[in-house]
Each structure stands twice: as C-alpha cells, then as structure tokens.
C-alpha cells in the first residue's frame, strides 16, 4: 500500500501503487479531513475508469457544492 504524499515529484513506484488502488489515507494526515472530502479524493483516485469520477461529477460532488463544508483552517 502506497504511503505517498500527494504532491509534485511523487516517484513512479508511488504513482503505480495509486493507479492500482493500493494507497492509504493515514489518520495522522487525514483525521481532520471531512468524510465528504475523503469521498471526493477516493472517487478521483478510483483505478477503474468506469467507476472514477468524471470532471463534471467531481465538480458536482457534495463537498464542492456545500460552502459550509469548505474550511479555511489548515490541516
């Protein structure tokens, strides 16, 4: 399971693991992230292209549509 930081410069091994759906969202980094935001990330990282969120579906996702869900607090 990949434990890569989602940032520029990720190595190829990390990207390969993510493309296979073998990634984790460690609680240390993700415990303050809402379930809706996590749902969006998982939908975008879905390895099966038929199940992956499209750009339109991502823009319509509950987390992006609910202004109260957005936070200015750093995580």
Describe what this molecule looks like in 3D.
The chain is mostly helical and 75 residues long. The protein contains 5 helices and no strands. It has helices spanning 12-19, 27-30, 35-44, 55-59, 62-65. The chain is flat. The relative contact order is 0.15. The model has no long low-confidence stretch (mean pLDDT 84).
Biggest sheet layout: none
Total of DSSP H or I helical runs spanning 4+ residues: 5
**Average residue-wise pLDDT:** 84
* Residue windows where pLDDT falls under 50 for at least 5 positions: none
Helix content: 40-55%
Record field, number of beta strands: 0
Cα end-to-end separation: 23 Å
Task: Kindly name the structural category.
Answer: mainly alpha
How is the quaternary structure best described?
Answer: single chain
Strand content: under 5%
Q: Kindly provide the radius of gyration, computed on alpha-carbon positions and rounded to a whole number of angstroms.
A: 13 Å
Q: What shape does the CA trace take?
A: flat
